[in-house]
Design a protein that fits this description.
Elements lengths: L1 E5 L2 E5 L7 H8 L18 E4 L2 E4 L12 E3 L1 H4 L6 H8 L9 H14 L5 H7 L9 H15 L15 H6 L9
Parallel strand pairs: 1-5
Antiparallel strand pairs: 1-2, 3-4, 3-5
Helix pairs in contact: 3-6
């Protein structure tokens, strides 16, 4: 049994220890914000935070994260108030949305370390692939989120979701407890 912490909650998985973290999060924990893109670490759709570092969860086994802390997009901000989330909406950096969770997670790690990154630092930290080509807007969103974090600007772009995850789960048969 593999044990670690996901989104501030201790978890234990009865899965093969070599199971990629991505599949444990998506299939066993139903944390589907972390996306499967390529399966070989190239696209960045599966980025999560492990002990403060952005990692590609398709490349890491659950055995490798034993005893560590994992944060997914679901825990970044339940009400979408995180500056990176707000800035992505304000700068219209979201197109289809598939790559967005990985980019937002990677950007949040970058900005926690450096709230005023250069273009080169953003390019080095955000190596995610976006088929919609929103890179200029992603860079603008990251810079704007940095200004918000430095308290130089405010944003009121993304409204809260209007429904709690628990209430949303009531409408999804697969997440409804069996009677």
């Amino acid at each position: 049994m593999t044990k670690f912490t996901v989104n501030d909650r201790p978890v234990q998985y009865r899965l093969d220890p070599e199971t990629p973290l991505l599949w444990a999060l998506r299939d066993a924990s139903n944390l589907t914000g972390t996306k499967y893109g390529c399966g070989n670490g190239d696209c960045g759709a599966c980025v999560v935070v492990v002990d403060g570092e952005a990692i590609r969860s398709c490349l890491v086994s659950i055995a490798e994260v034993e005893g560590r802390y994992v944060t997914t997009i679901e825990a970044l901000s339940r009400d979408r108030s995180h500056p990176v989330q707000q800035a992505f909406v304000a700068e219209q950096a979201v197109q289809c949305g598939f790559c967005t969770p990985g980019m937002i997670i990677a950007a949040s790690v970058l900005l926690r370390k450096n709230s005023d990154p250069s273009d080169a630092e953003i390019d080095a930290a955000i190596r995610n692939l976006c088929r919609c080509g929103t890179y200029p807007r992603v860079r603008a969103a990251i810079k704007r989120a940095g200004r918000v974090m430095r308290r130089q600007e405010t944003i009121a772009a993304a409204p809260p979701p209007g429904i709690s995850p628990e209430d949303a789960a009531k409408d999804v048969p697969a997440l409804t407890p069996a009677e």
